[in-house]
Amino acid sequence: MSLQSSAFLTLLVLSLAVPIILFLLLRASLTDLLRQTLRVQAGITFYLRSFLLILFLSSLSAAIGTSFYLKPDSRFMEYVWKGAEGMSSTLEKTLWFVAIYLVLITILVATLKIKDDK
Amino acid sequence: MTNERYLIASYFAGAALSAGLGTMVYLFLRRPFGGVADATSSKRLSSVLKRLLPWGLLFPAVLGFVSVSYQGCGRTTYEDIVQSRSYLVEKNQEQLSSVLLYILVAVVFWDVIVLLVLKYAQNGRNESQLPQVDD
């Protein structure tokens, strides 16, 4: 396997690990929050699935967009730097979309839960 | 395989993949979305939303694919574009990345729609629970 493919595969594996870890960490508390907020069970499933999609799509979108085509005589560390660049882009995109999702969930809780508590 | 053959094969495979990804995301969200749409008291709204969801995911996927142009980086003619295999692979990666990003934006959009639908359904429930005043 060439250095190019190895670097790309490493980035792909790392960018798959990020959403998996984040989802496993947040799933239980997000489910509890949604259960307290929503009366419709389908709504809970929808928001959990969309959270999973947001994590994977943002992460993979950044990782796949990273090109490892460097000049033929490139050294090992140049591929590492390129991988780090890809990882930075992956984490940045994931962070932005998770932030958007959090804002959305906050609006959901603010608009639906307060009325239910009355 | 020549670069030109690779370009043709990868372009149509990419188009099929983008449509496939849009369909897969639709199938993943279809059932819970249907449940949310059914929670509204209006049957027409529920029906319209359920019919719009597949197009609201498929169109962004295809849009993401076609939004990537092969012309650029000093390559304006067809001969320039098919000259380098690495350039073609790079463009394929860019197309796939763009497809995923557009689907992602569509999912966030549908999240907002579901939020509005749930609010509408809640208002409907609250109104139906109000005590009826006789004239």
Report on this structure.
The complex is a heterodimer of chains A (118) and B (135). With 118 residues, chain A is mainly alpha-helical. Chain A has one domain (3-117). Helices cover 86% and strands 0% of the residues of chain A. Chain A is built from 3 helices and no strands. Chain A has helices spanning 3-37, 41-64, 76-117. In chain A, helix 1 packs parallel to helix 3. Chain A is elongated and about 60 Å long. Chain A starts with a helix and ends with a helix. Chain B is mainly alpha-helical. Chain B has one domain. Chain B has helices spanning 3-38, 43-66, 78-83, 85-129. The longest helix of chain B has 45 residues, at 85-129. The mean pLDDT of chain B is 89. The chains are: A mainly alpha (118), B mainly alpha (135).
**CA-CA gap between termini of chain A:** 63 Å
What structural class is derived from the secondary structure elements of chain B? Answer: mainly alpha
Q: What sort of overall outline of chain A do the alpha carbons produce when their principal axes are compared?
A: elongated
How much strand of chain A? under 5%
Short structural description:
The complex is a heterodimer of chains A (118) and B (135). In chain A, 86% of the residues lie in helices and 0% in strands.
Keywords:
heterodimer; A: 118 residues; mainly alpha; 0% strand; B: 135 residues; 4 helices; 82% helix; elongated
Write the layout of secondary structure elements.
The complex is a heterodimer of chains A (118) and B (135).
Chain A: H1 3-37, H2 41-64, H3 76-117
Chain B: H1 3-38, H2 43-66, H3 78-83, H4 85-129
Helix pairs in contact in B: 1-2, 1-4, 2-4
